[in-house]
Amino acid sequence: MTTITKNQTTIVMKPIFKLGTLKQRFWRALLSNPDSYISRKVISFSSYIEEMKWKKRLQNAGVSKVYEIFTYTNINELRALYRLASSCPQGAVALEIGSHFGASSCYISAGLAKVNGHLFCVDTWHNETMAEGEQDTFADFQKNTYGVKQQITPVRKKSDAVSTQDIKVPLNFVFIDGDHSYEAVKSDFELVQQWLAKDGIIAFHDFSNPDYEGVTRVIGEALVSGKWKIVGYVDTLVWIKPATWNKPIWVK
User: What digits encode the pLDDT tens for the residues 15-52?
Assistant: First the structure.
């Protein structure tokens, strides 16, 4: 607002428009009609900017070709793994059970790079439980994760044979994505619980997937026990942590 003083008379000149009001009207109009041409352009441009940011992050981490790696984990879930890893404390230790060709390993390692963390990848790399049949994929894993190899320690054995001699504990983050049978998921979950750091997180892939009811059963049992709580999910990726409950305050 501009004020002009002339011959002791004050003239107040009101602005023709307010920038803030125009912005609000623009976004209201945009959100009220997401199918309009302008809305589609804005959304497309925002998606492009977000995609460029992710490519830059992965390039800086040394895994710019991660998009070329075959994986059953979708892009939203992979990015969630990155965020979970990058939110770990400094010097964090992470464990992945079931690494396949290494796509999720790359995202987790890229996130851990932000906190100087390290990832232990446990897999036989013989694909005993994969739909495509048994094959040795270890050479492909090493090639795909070459850019972050300094942050990864492969442990080539079955998860139920892993001990603290193979990995470093306590674990700040665990990603369970190996054998999806009920017995195997339960065994993996019980194994890593004892090594989990305070405020550590355990993530599972394929929760609520009708083809893998074992994953959903194990998580359901954990929640029913009252000892665990869900703290986040993206598509079929769910992560939980030990539950802490406030004692009730009784009003007299």
Answer: 544 556 766 766 666 666 667 665 566 556 677 787 88
Cβ-count burial 67-76 (b if 16+ within 10 Å, e if not): eebebbbeee
Q: Could you please report the per-residue DSSP string of 187-235?
A: HHHHHHHTTEEEEEEEEESSTT-TT-HHHHHHHHHHHHTTSEEEEEEET
Neighbours of 175 (CB within 10 A): 29
Structure tokens, 236: 């079929």
174 CB neighbour count, 10 Å cutoff: 25
Domains, the chain, ordered by start: 19-59 (no CATH), 70-242 (3.40.50.150)
What pTM does this model have? 0.81
Question: Is the preceding omega at residue 170 within 30 degrees of 0, hence cis?
Answer: yes
d(CA 150, CA 134): 28
Report how far residue 211's alpha carbon sits from residue 70's, in angstroms, rounded to the nearest whole number. Answer: 20
Cα separation, 155 vs 17, in Å, equals 65
N-terminal to C-terminal alpha carbon distance within the chain:
56
Q: Out of 20-34, 53-67, 117-131, 232-246, which region has the weakest mean confidence (pLDDT)?
A: 20-34
